[in-house]
Every structure is written in C-alpha cells, then in structure tokens.
Design goal:
Oligomer: single chain
Helix content: 10-25%
Order of helices and strands: EHHEEEEEEH
Number of domains: 1
Strand order of the largest sheet: 1-4-5-6-3
Number of helices: 3
CATH class: Alpha Beta
CATH topology: Thiol Ester Dehydrase, Chain A
Length: 131
C-alpha cells in the first residue's frame, strides 16, 4: 500500500463548492502514478515499457461523502487483484479519517505494436504481485 495526500483546489469543484465527481478519477490516477513511480516498476517501466502498454479498461467510483475546496484528501493505493493480463488498483480517499470515495481501475496489458491483449510482462507482474 501507498499513501498520497492532495489538497482539493477550487478549480476542482463544482459551483456548489464540492469536488466535481470526475476529479475523483483524476486524483486516483495521480495517486496510482505516484505509487508506480515509487515502486520497482518506476514511471518509465509502466508508461514507457518496451513491449507493453497498460491502458485503462474499466473504472468505477463509489462516493461516501463530499470533499470541498481546501480539504486535505488522503488517498491509499493498493493492488486489489493481479490476473494473467491485468491489474486492479483500488484508491481509497478520506478526509480527516472520514471516507470520501473509492476508485477501482482495471489496466490491461496490451502489445504496443499491434494493440492486442497480452499477458502481463514478467518484470511488471513480479513487482505487482509482491506489493
């Protein structure tokens, strides 16, 4: 698991002053990027892998309570599942211990040259399974 904190900015909010729903996906993706950058995979190993890309196949969010501008959002990233060709990340966000949202995103390994689904490369799989 990995933890990341992010203050909610005014530009991320709707006219009522609450976090716009789509921003939860942006925040979660930023937390996953930091998680991967701090792992043995590294940023280049995920975003610039020699043979594979890992596009988003599915994303969902469950909202528990609102966030507003100025709130400090604490996000915890964990790997929920690793399968033969994909990984599921879960990002749980809270403010002062109050659960706010949970994002799950599924990333599938894809061959960079012909864009077909492939097995997770062994170098990536070994790091994901160890976390």
């Amino acid at each position: 698991m990995s933890a990341v904190s992010q203050e909610i900015c005014f530009h991320q909010c709707d006219p009522a002053g609450y976090l716009f729903f789509a921003e939860s996906f942006v925040l979660a993706h930023q937390a996953i990027e930091k998680f991967l950058s701090n792992s043995r995979i590294g940023r280049a190993g995920w975003f610039e892998h020699e043979t594979a890309a890992f596009p988003l196949r599915h994303a969902e969010c469950d909202y528990q309570s609102p966030l507003k501008a100025g709130d400090l959002c604490e996000m915890t990233v964990r790997i929920e599942k690793v399968s033969s060709s994909s990984v599921v990340f879960e990002v749980a966000a809270a403010c002062n211990g109050r659960p706010c949202f949970t994002v799950r995103s599924v990333h599938t390994a894809m061959n960079r040259s012909d864009h077909t689904k492939i097995a997770l490369p062994s170098d990536v799989r070994s790091v994901l399974e160890a976390r």
